[in-house]
Amino acid sequence: MKLSMVLPVYNEGEKLREFFEELVTVVRLLEFDLEAVFVNDGSRDDSLAVMRQLKNEHGDVADVVVLDFARNFGHQAAVTAGMEHCTGDVILIMDTDMQDDPSVIPRMIEKWRAGAEVVYARRTSRREPLLVRFLFNAYYRVFSSITPIEVPHSAGNFGLVDRRVADEIRALGEHNRYYPGLRAWVGFRQDGVDAPRRGRPGGRSRVGLLGLMELALDAFFGFSILPLRLAFAAAVLLALAGVVGIAVIFYIKLFTDLAIPMWSSIMTLVIFTASAQFFLIGMLGEYIARIYTEVKGRPHYIIRDRF
Ligand code: UDP
Ligand code: MG
Hints:
Blueprint: E1 2-9, H1 15-27, E2 33-40, H2 47-57, E3 63-69, H3 75-85, E4 90-93, H4 105-113, E5 118-123, H5 130-146, E6 155-162, H6 163-171, H7 179-185, E7 190-195, H8 208-222, H9 226-255, H10 262-296, E8 303-306
Parallel strand pairs: 1-2, 1-4, 2-3, 5-7
Antiparallel strand pairs: 3-8, 4-6, 5-6
The structure holds uridine-5'-diphosphate and magnesium ion.
The site of uridine-5'-diphosphate has 17 residues, from β1 and α3.
């Protein structure tokens, strides 16, 4: 049996060595052939050189494969590439910045041996500022209420999947990828293990706030068409309200001497309908932008070098 480790790397520098050595001490005790697939996602520091050294030093413990991207394609693309190039019977995906604690891997393997085909890490502690944590929670709640599939709360990329699951996820060709969502979407027997998430070593996320927002939008629009349905429902309600409004106006005109306060009612209506329309156009734009990237059909990533 072979265990593959998919390891996306973006500017991890010297820390990468510490990370990999810690990982190796854990996984070498498992009874597996080992394969490590590093994906260098356009790092601008010495990460690639470190990977080269690690490949030389640890060749006896694991097959180390390095995929060197032609530029930075993003974390999700790196994970995709790693999954497409690994050959194991079970595939582990984890961050390389030491935020994911390797000591939970044996428990994940146990669950896999017991029959689980997907095992994800449940984050028991999120060391983020209160506001960020609040936003994450709010997001999860909205997301899970609009998507028909069940994406486990506070599960990220960290986890392992059976070969069959990896093949199914690979076959999903979509470009706007949100791995935890895709992993939930394919189904199979899923299970979680609790894993505290460590603090950020450098203190900063390289995915960044913008990247997180993009991921959030991908998850949101990629896994639900409910917003479109709601827009339709809102349009029906507005039309009904309009009919009632017109009836009231006719009544006032025909049967009373009351003057209708024109300016304020018109302005209210104009502002309301205009902002509602902009909102809906923006939302349609999110779907159209996704259709656009999908039909272009560009590759998810480009590999400059593989060794
Ligand atoms: N990463 C990547 N490409 C990127 C950004 C990040 O491959 O453009 C890697 C990074 O090296 C790390 C993982 O993806 O192993 C998660 O990134 P990060 O720690 O910045 O994100 P976090 O989840 O901590 O916000
Ligand atoms: Mg991190």
